[in-house]
């Protein structure tokens, strides 16, 4: 049975008047939903296993958060504690949820900010309340409103100060919240002082539990994360350069890698470096709050790690450009690449060795090997230079016949399409007819000319591409870009070595000892803090 539902559209209806297509769509959706529900337990288990395997400390942190919430819940569950604190115990639970972070530095930063903001806000609120109670009710309301306006405006504006925004932004937010809660509620509530005391005690209890869990129960240090991430970035760059050069001179097709660049090991090696700016700055900030927990109790210059990360990002941009040479449309023939394979692979191998030596020196907290820039690196550079000079015809081009032929072809093409308007369209003002047949004839010619013009627009880029690829010296241009980037990597390697050596000098790294028989610590002066806005000490807060 066919029922017309719209003009020009018909659909099949079943006995109940429901369209068959609608019913089939619902069946497909139910089948897909049931399939997803069947696969969800396996997907959930794989996700849990993957997250825990990537970083086992995540399970430890989850355990610490659960234990902290259980301990703070005792303020509610145990009758003696509940009678002493009352419903204000909820502030302890909120403090644990908000303050307890993954690393000890982040927890210290938030906990001390919360405590400092609460103390300052409470003290100022009690001062405002003491002054307001000495006046009448109307003046008291006006005075409280004016105080809230002034303090709120001033504190909010201070959040834009770079130093405060970097170190105490969360504390200023807590200050505003606590000050307004106490000041405004004091106008209607009689025993606001007792409520403020109870809330302050519960916040202190919550912060104490968070600090205990962060510092004493399997502590996770932001400084160690920053240290290890710097080592990982150096190793990732080394692997990327080595894999990039090996793949460039490999006989496999390069277009296969172009389709899956996101899974490319070269891409994975430098991706962590390019995305590390915000992570490094955050870890360095949290590390500056952490107590000295190293073996020698030195305060490491975490901001110098940020400088090393900045130099590595500049180094990584060159690696990205080197990787781009593998994905260009015009590639140097394999026969030409084979002429320079050995010196390029040797040069990349020496750069890789230098980066791995830098990574090991930071990992072991020792100075770099004196031979990090060995003679082999300079010999590889010299060999590459000699190989390029031995093939001047590839880069300068001794045969100009093809170039002249292509230039002549381009000139002829331009002359053919720059004819006078009369010759191009085949019509002049004197030959225009006024009857309808002439008008139709003119329209037909006009349409054919427009079609030819569109065809010429399509052929122009093809002609340009043929002209580029047929020039003899253009075969070596892609390799010239690849070789120049490889030499640029060697040049930028000096900046990386300089920053790593500066890090070792400031942090008092031990001297390089190949036998590792003894630990020699060289430190001309006590470690200094290179962070511009780093606090000298946080215990006094």
UniProtKB/TrEMBL annotation:
Keywords: Ion channel, Ion transport, Membrane, Transmembrane, Transmembrane helix, Transport
Places the protein is found: Membrane
InterPro entries linked: ALMT
GO biological process, one term: malate transport
Pfam families (UniProt xref): ALMT (PF11744)
Transmembrane feature ranges: 59-77, 89-108, 138-158, 170-188, 200-221
Membrane topology: Multi-pass membrane protein
Main location: membrane
GO cellular component, one term: membrane
Protein family per UniProt: Belongs to the aromatic acid exporter (TC 2.A.85) family.
Protein name: Aluminum-activated malate transporter 12-like
